[in-house]
Specification:
With 212 residues, the chain is of the alpha/beta class. It contains eight helices and seven strands. Strand 2, helix 2 and strand 3 form a beta-alpha-beta unit. The protein is globular and about 45 Å long.
């Protein structure tokens, strides 16, 4: 089974505000783009992934991610993360209604294709399922079978909200790279310890005390 992934990315100027204690204002947009580039590149290298659609209105990010092979979907609703994901899922289903779809965070810079494949293989057993993040509070992946609605509930306490919505919580061992999203400086250090992609490694090297 091969999946279509939808990855949401807010305008880079607004991204990663919680990294303010680690990265200056001028560095955060580049860091957010590096996260997204490494996430998309790893996803496209996964044998279980047919294609990747990024929903964003950021022109710079759209150009860079399209160059990697992602399809860019404009965020027409402009009504927040979950509305953007529902819109993107509808767009990709318009051309590939038979494809299972998974929403994946754009800030998984340590993502490893083989680990993503294990998660998607596990998700294929359920109509709708999700993977909690490393903090066991949020969600890094929400997957649905062909013909099923995505019904995303990302945001605060999304693990509990996805579970309450009837999605199956995936319990897959040794997939830390799929669970390690980056919101804080501590998260970034954890991702660096796992081993990040080349763009994040280069961006992180510019931050004092990070990646040294």
């Amino acid at each position: 089974m091969q999946w279509t992934l939808v990855i949401p990315l807010k305008p880079l100027a607004l991204a990663k505000s919680r990294l303010a204690d680690t990265a200056a204002d001028g560095l955060r947009p580049g860091l957010a783009l590096a996260f997204a580039e490494d996430t998309v590149a790893a996803a496209l290298a996964c044998a279980a992934v047919r294609d990747v659609a990024v929903v964003t209105d950021d022109a710079l990010a759209g150009h860079a991610l399209a160059a990697l092979g992602a399809r860019i979907v404009p965020d027409e609703p402009r009504a927040g993360l979950n509305a953007a994901l529902e819109h993107a899922a509808g767009v990709v289903r318009g051309s590939r209604p038979e494809s299972p779809v998974a929403a994946v965070n754009a800030d998984l810079p340590a993502l490893r294709p083989l680990e993503l494949a294990r998660v998607l293989d596990a998700a294929a057993e359920f109509p709708r399922s999700f993977l909690p993040d490393a903090a066991a509070i949020g969600t890094t992946l929400l997957a649905v079978a062909a013909g099923r609605e995505l019904l995303p509930a990302f945001g605060t306490d999304s693990r509990a909200r996805h579970r309450s919505s009837g999605a199956e919580e995936l319990r897959v061992a040794a997939v830390d790279s799929v669970r390690q999203d980056v919101d804080t400086g501590e998260d970034l250090r954890a991702a660096l310890a796992l081993g990040v992609g080349p763009r994040t490694a280069a961006a992180a090297a510019r931050l004092l005390g990070i990646g040294q």
